[in-house]
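User: DNA repair photolyase, Cellulophaga baltica:
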Amino acid sequence: MHSKNYIKGRGAQHNNTNKFSEFKYKTRDDFLEFCRIEGEEADTNKTQYLPIFPKTIVNKVTSPDIGMEYSMNPYQGCEHGCIYCYARNTHEFWGYSPGLDFERTILVKKDAPKLLEAKLKNKHWKAQTIVLSGNTDCYQPAEKQFELTKSSLELFLKYKHPVSIITKNALILRDLELLKALAKDNLIYVNVSVTSLSEETRRLLEPRTTTIKKRLETIKVLSKNGIPVNAMLAPIIPGINSHEILNLAKTVAENGASSFGFTVVRLNGAIGQIFTDWIQKTMPDRASKVLHQIEECHGGTLNDSRFGLRSRGEGIIATQFHDLMRLAKRTYFKNSNTLPLNTNLHELHKDGQLKLF
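Assistant: Predicted structure for DNA repair photolyase:
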């Protein structure tokens, strides 16, 4: 049962203080009373898009346990509002709160395609898979308006450069023809996140994401069109979706996923405070149990920054998750075989067309 102060349609339930700011945000009672008297809304809860103009768009990933070397994020912040999202902390570097600001103030990198093209044409660049997006979802609602992901995929196709996508939005199917063209040369790999098979759980954890039904349909359509799909069963949260592990693996396999991966939830930085506030408002009856079990997976703390362990977890509970995942792989993914993407074509297409000599 939700708290009376629950903000529908959002993950975070407040704007916690930016650790880099000397100022603290607080909604005072006299301000709320003024708004009531004047018939005004104290908070419209609307999403705003702000253009920003970074100098580069392709980022080198230095963390040794992330599983990607380069990433590209057309948008900073994410309207999906996933309560557990590790990217929330990055919003503080832009001067915003990792709470509600992260999902309501979306920074749009309008020059992303131009910056990407410059990178792909750079004579010193050697093709390596670039991941869309290593931080925030490249198919979040903003993409409907700005189409930065679509424009970027057109460039990856033009220059025959490998690209991988991470998303939980069915909007990716809008670009199916582009994806099929990339797949013909083994230049595309898609990761679709499926966190639960329960719509109720999905709405609480990921309030503005595509429904589970549409997500599974997305996996099926991509797979049928020859586009390799990895299902990300992540994060696994004890007491919330951990009981679904085998059913999740079985269902994504039945819908065409060629492989799957998972992580154990970790609540670094401000996310621990945001998640704690959220679960106390959405699941007060089990909040304490869930938080303690998360701590058991990370050496007694919600915050875990140890490379190699932070996403795997440790202890009895995490070990049980890994055992179930191994069982799921043996049972539902016996013939899983993922080929590396093609990096051999790009050098011949650096000027946008095939070099004959």
